[in-house]
Each structure stands twice: as structure tokens, then as C-alpha cells.
Amino acid sequence: MRSYYELHQPLSNLRLAHFWDYFSGDALHSRWAEGGTGTKAMNDAVNGGLSITTSSSTNSSGFIAFNDIRHYAHDGSVIIGLVQNIDTASYWHHFGLTEQIASVANTRAIYVQDSTNSFIELNTSLNASTTVVATSLSLDQALHSVKIELKPSSCIMHVDGALEAVGTANLPDVKLQPKFRQGTRTTASKQGNILYAEAYNV
Amino acid sequence: MVQQSLLEKLNGTLGTVAKSRCVDNFSGDSLDEMWTAGGTGSGAMNDAVNGGYRITTGASTNDFYHISFNNSSRHYSNTGSVFVLTCNRNTTLARYFAGLANNTSFTSNFFLVDNDNTNSFYRLKVGASNVDTSIAVDTTVRTSMGILKSASASLSIDGSLEAISTSNLPSNQLQPSYVVQTKTTAAATGDITFMEAYNI
Fold first, then answer.
1. Which residues of A touch B16 (CB under 8 A)?
2. What is the pLDDT of residues B34-89, one digit of tens each?
3. pLDDT, tens digit, 9 for 90 and up, residues B130-178
4. Which residue on chain A is closest to B142 by alpha carbon?
5. What is the DSSP secondary-structure string of chain A?
6. Parallel/antiparallel/unpaired status of strands A191-201 and A18-21
7. Whether the predicted pLDDT of A1 surpasses 70
8. Which residue among A1, A16, A72 sits closest to B10, beta carbon to beta carbon?
9. Which of A37, A201, B58, B67 sits CB 3.0–4.6 Å from B40 for a disulfide?
């Protein structure tokens, strides 16, 4: 019988910060802190995961994050997620690593679907200065796997296993936490789902 | 490709009945509910890269603070179990000990790695028995693996076998534990970033 530790590395290699969450069960795991407005609820559907449903106030959003407990390195970390935007208009949908939960525009590296754009994007931000790299993927309502890798001089994003974006400017320079967020641009609520999240330092 | 279950990756086959196991990466904004914290001091998730969970002891000599399963969920066998943990103490004049213990009085019936500044080396502690390793005590983050069988206990640190004991082996069921203790009149801290325990 093997140890879980040794599934990922030999005992001679020091294990760095690493978590995963399958968003399964009857409640969101206590590692997550909820924020913003709207509801966050386990989704009673096959492969349902967790749903964030915003309130009906224009520009409101809801999110889950680690309440500013930031274990992930800006220059050597990976975040992976299975995420799905549900709506077709007037929304934004973010997943990735961020510095703060308190501010909308802050240091972060995130996957973005935003109805004001045409394509899925990688956004890297440093103190609210943002570099946007558009992917080849149109906005949609499909479930996507997202992998964002932060390295010392670049940020690389794969979507559904394909390299889609590389950012080299406005890279984060501080410790980070996972965050998933759904927002609405109108007086109608919008929904996003998350089925899996994993992050680790390298 | 058919997705393989985690259970099969760990056990090799579903034909082998799996036994108790716990795994904690100490990530997120709060300590997992599986743990109960106690003693003199406090604990909190540590907002730092690879921060894990930080214990801060009280400020009286020998004050200690711990996390365990509250003496109420002792799932791990005294004749066949394993612990794997990644932790340290940040304070020089301090101690941590961690592994599997029957109760949080830590007076007997335990199987632990011990990093105590009053000793020269990391130790395997099995009840009243102490076996020195070759590693000088320090504040370095290290990975320890303890394997307890019916007639022996062994300790590996950072992948190297360091100590074996065959006496004073635990006689009762066990729970994972991590303890930080101060050796002066100042608070001490220690961080734990991974803990796993399972029966074999």
C-alpha cells in the first residue's frame, strides 16, 4: 500500500503547498470562504459541482477563495480547474490565482470569460495594471479544463489541454490564493459552475 | 482512457480491501474539521507561501499546543500503520513531536518523530524508548515517515531510514498528532504543511 505523498513525489523531495477539491458532497468544503453576493450551493446534477449564482444587482458578483490565506507562489505555481459559464450575455466568469479578495482589480492571473469580449482570455494583473491575452476560443457555455502556470517570467494557460495563451507582462509579484468568481452586468442573475480545483507550488 | 480511481492508485487493486486513511494538505482558510486543537496557545492557517497551519504556544516554559483527533477517532492500528508528515518548528528553543498517539497526554502509547532543541538529534520516540537519528535538531522543514508493525517501529526522514525501535511499542489504537512546545518563557511556533496516516 502506497502513501498519498509518494503518488506525487518521493519522500526525499519536500512536498510544497498543494490542494485539490472535487466539489462533491452536500456542502462546500470549509477550506473555502464565500464572498460577494448571491448564492453558492452544491449543484444537484450529474457532474454538478458547485454553482455560484449572482444576485440581480448590476455589477454584483459572488466568489469563493481562501480568505487571503495565500500559499501559492507568484513565480512557481500551477492552478487547474474545471469550470463552466452558464449564461450567454451580460456576465463575467473568472478562475485563477489572486492576491486579494477585497478588491476587484488586483494582482492576479486568471482565466476570463467576459460577455463584453469575443474570446476567452488570460488576464495577468499587477497592482491593477492588466495585460490581456486573447485565446482562439469563443465565449461559450461549455465545461472547460483550465490550467494556468505561473513561472518567473511568464504565465501560460492551457484550455482543454491546448496551449491557448502566454502572458509575459504585469505578472503577479506576491503570494496568491485560488479564486472562482461569477458576476452580472445587468439586473438579472448569472451562474457559473466549478467541478474541480487544484493548485500547487513547483 | 478510463480514469483510474485514487483508491486503486493507492491500493493497487480494488480486490484489496482498503483500510483507514486520512490526508491533509493544510490548505485553505481554516483547519479541516477532522482536527481538534488544544493545549496552551493557538493555531491558525499561515498566510505565507507553503505556509500550512501554524501553531503558536503559550509563553511559559513547556507550554504546548497540539492538533489531534480528540481521543475520539483513533482509527490507526498499533500493529500496522504509517504516518507521513511535513513540518518544522520555527523557534530555536523549542520542540515539536508528531506522528501517532493514543491520547493527548502523550505519556505513553505513542510513536513519534521528535525534534527537541534539548537533544542533539532528531529522535524516534516509541513510548519510553528514544532512538537518535543522524540528523541534528534544527528548524528545517522535513518530511518524516513512520512505519509501525507488530514488533517494530521505524522512522525515515527526508527519504532515508534513520531509526528503528523494537521496545515500548504502542498497545492501543492511535490518532495523528502534531505538537509544538516552547522551552523558554517565550512563545514558540511550528508549521505543518502535510499529514497522512493509514493502516497497513
1. 1
2. 999 999 999 999 999 999 999 999 999 999 999 999 998 899 999 999 999 999 99
3. 999 999 999 999 999 999 999 999 999 999 999 999 999 999 999 999 9
4. A14
5. ---HHHHHS-TTSPP--EEEE---SSS--TT-EEEESSEEEE--STT--EEEE--SSTT-EEEEE-TT---B-TTSEEEEEEEEE--SSSEEEEEEEES-SS-SS-SEEEEEEETTSSEEEEEEEETTEEEEEEEEEEP-SSEEEEEEEE-SS-EEEEETTEEEEEE-SS---S-BEEEEEEEESSSS--EEEEEEEEEEE-
6. antiparallel
7. yes
8. A1
9. B58
**Residue of higher predicted confidence among B20 and B195:** B195
Instruction: Give the C-alpha separation, B51 to A111, whole Å.
Output: 25
Q: Which residues have C-beta within 8 Å of that of residue A202, sequence separation ≥ 6?
A: A16, A76, A77, A78
Q: Do A71 and B82 touch (CB under 8 A)?
A: no
* Chain B residues whose beta carbon lies within 8 Å of the beta carbon of residue A150: none
A3–B196 C-beta distance less than 8 A:
yes
User: Can you give the pLDDT at residue B9?
Assistant: 81
Q: What pLDDT is recorded for position A104?
A: 62
Q: Which of A7, A12, A67 sits opposite B159 (nearest CB)?
A: A12
From chain A, pick out residues whose CB is under 8 angstroms from the CB of B138. none
Distance to chain B for A82, nearest Cα, Å: 16
Q: Which of residues 70-109 of A touch B (CB under 8 A)?
A: 70-73
Shortest distance between the Cα of A68 and any Cα of chain B, in A, equals: 7
Task: Check CB contact under 8 Å for B27 and A15.
Answer: no
pLDDT of residue A117: 97
Q: What would the pLDDT profile of A84-128 be if each residue is shown by its tens digit?
A: 999 999 999 999 999 999 866 589 999 999 999 999 999 999 997
What is the rounded CA–CA span in Å between residue A69 and residue B47? Answer: 4
In tens, the pLDDT along A172-182 reads 999 999 999 99
